[in-house]
Design goal:
Layout lengths: L8 E3 L6 E3 L7 H10 L16 H7 L9 H16 L16 H14 L3 E5 L24 H5 L3 E5 L14 E7 L10 H11 E10 L20 H14 L4 E9 L6 E7 L1
Parallel strand pairs: 3-4, 3-5, 5-6, 6-7
Antiparallel strand pairs: 1-2, 7-8
Helix pairs in contact: 1-7, 6-7
């Protein structure tokens, strides 16, 4: 490979598309991301790491937390209205209350214990009722605790949700762990790179996320499906790899649920790193 050939592309097998080499990727953050992924030297030689497609790199700089896409702004405004007005089927109090599923609690407990975490950020928490209500946790776990925070052994839990005004201010600090449960599929595709980077940036030890790779049963008040980014685990793996490489000290566990090839069942694919 010629060292001055900045237009060269490397054809790749499978789903990763075409990796793009050019002057632009040698700048600051993108260079650091590549090096953390295993690309080194002036030609960024690959050491058995997944390659990232040109479109991924292009989207990294298109939008940011300070400059989200127009679609992001539109959806945030819509979610804020639904939080305060309901949607006809659910009251405002019931809308996006934030109730966890049993398997999510089990997965989170395992990560909190493994990383000895004491602080947690719930990214995309909804109204955060899961942290204020009593649950019959003893029916499923060996515990007498009623509050989720106490059961998990956490000292601090904060909620962040740009679509819910009381929790819409970005956190000023980092946390041992960050959870993002059934949220990412609600984010516009153009904003996924910076959202993932922000999630990893708030964590010092681990990230736990759940992603549904199929349309939601819920329809938004404007008639659109609530899941605006429906992608398979392979697509999410590529984007998570970029965020992880920028924050190499943070471990992650991403549960992707997608239909089986024949559509007869929902499969769970776990991305870990």
């Amino acid at each position: 490979m010629a060292s001055h050939d900045h237009s060269m592309s490397i054809p790749l097998p499978s789903r990763y598309g075409t990796f793009w080499i050019g002057e632009r990727i040698f700048s600051s953050k993108k260079r650091a991301v590549l090096e953390n992924l295993g690309y080194h030297g002036p030609w960024l030689r690959c050491y058995a790491k997944p390659l990232l497609c040109k479109e991924t790199w292009s989207s990294m700089s298109s939008f940011s937390a300070d400059n989200p896409s127009p679609r992001w702004r539109e959806l945030v405004a819509l979610y804020r209205r639904m939080h305060t007005e309901g949607d006809g089927a659910l009251t405002a109090e019931e809308m996006f209350a934030g109730m966890p599923r049993l398997e999510q609690i089990s997965n989170l407990k395992a990560l909190v214990d493994a990383h000895e975490a004491k602080s947690l950020l719930d990214y995309g928490s909804g109204k955060g009722m899961q942290w204020r209500m009593d649950f019959n946790l003893g029916d499923f776990f060996e515990t007498d605790e009623k509050r989720l925070r106490d059961f998990l052994g956490l000292e601090t839990v904060n909620c962040y949700d740009p679509g819910y005004e009381p929790f819409s201010k970005p956190p000023p600090t980092t946390y041992d762990g960050v959870i993002c449960l059934d949220v990412l599929e609600h984010c516009p595709e153009d904003d996924v790179p910076w959202v993932l980077d922000q999630i990893f940036g708030y964590a010092s030890r681990f990230v736990l996320a759940n992603i549904a790779s199929y349309p939601a049963t819920k329809v938004l008040s404007n008639g659109e499906n609530a899941h605006c980014t429906v992608k398979q685990a392979a697509w999410w793996r590529e984007h998570v790899a970029v965020a992880s490489a920028a924050h190499p000290a943070v471990r992650y566990r991403i549960h992707c649920r997608e239909p089986s090839p024949d559509g007869s069942e929902i499969l769970e694919i776990v991305l870990e790193g």
